Structure formats: structure tokens, C-alpha cells
Amino acid sequence: MKNTYLVHITLPEVFTQKFIALIPKHRTLINELMDKNIIRSYSLDMERHNVWAFIDAKTEKEVMDILSSFPIIKDVKATIHELAFYDSAPVGLPELIMN
Fold first, then answer.
1. Mind listing the pLDDT tens digit for each residue in 9-48?
2. Order of strands, edge to edge, in the sheet holding 77-82?
3. Taking residues 43-67, what's their average pLDDT?
4. Would you say residue 62 has pLDDT above 90?
5. pTM for the whole thing?
6. Who's near 53: CB < 8 A, 6+ residues apart?
């Protein structure tokens, strides 16, 4: 059974050219993990200091393994919180109206 973990990632105060160069590769990986339903959601605050990701995994170690694959991981600080539950509004297509 998988659990849901909230991962809080603190981004560096200053984005170096090296860090900026990693972002496209990082976003590609995030999109792949979202397509596989490993990452449920991924959010960045307006100041670009914090990222929150909800990750489905069996164990905290599995979450750490996922995080270790992030291209930006060496330049950020991540904290992992196991959640008791994770609820979200259903996402789907709008209701069709046949007139």
C-alpha cells in the first residue's frame, strides 16, 4: 500500500547559472513522474523560494530515492512529511449539455 508524503523543498536564495540550467531537465522529470501518478501535485510559490510536492510511495526511503533523482537536489533543502491522508477535489471534464 502506498502512502502520500508532502515534500517541502526550499530553493536557493540566489539562482546561479548552473542551477538555472538544471531547471528544464528537472521540469521534464517532474512531468514524467506526474504522468506516472508518482507525484500527485507540484507547486511553486510566487517568490520562487518554496516548492511543495505530494508524492505517493511505499516508504520514506522510496521518497528519498525519488528526490535523489531530481537534477536540482544538490542545490536545495528537502523535508519529508508522511501524511495521515490526502484529499483533493475530483478533476475531470466539464458536464456535457446536449441542446
1. 999 999 999 999 999 999 999 999 999 999 999 999 999 9
2. 39-44, 50-57, 3-10, 77-82
3. 97
4. yes
5. 0.86
6. 6, 7, 9, 30, 39, 41, 42, 43
Read off the amino acid at residue 40: R
Output the nine-digit C-alpha cell for 61.
Answer: 526511503
How many whole angstroms separate alpha carbon 79 and alpha carbon 32? 22
All three cell numbers of 6: 508532502
CATH code for the structural domain at 3-82? 3.30.70.1060
Q: Which amino acid makes up residue 20?
A: I
Query: Is residue 70 exposed (0-12), middle (13-18) or buried (19+ Cβ within 10 Å)?
Result: buried
- Domain regions of the chain by residue span: 3-82
Cell numbers standing for residue 93: 471534464
Strand segments, DSSP code E, in the chain are 3-10, 39-44, 50-57, 77-82
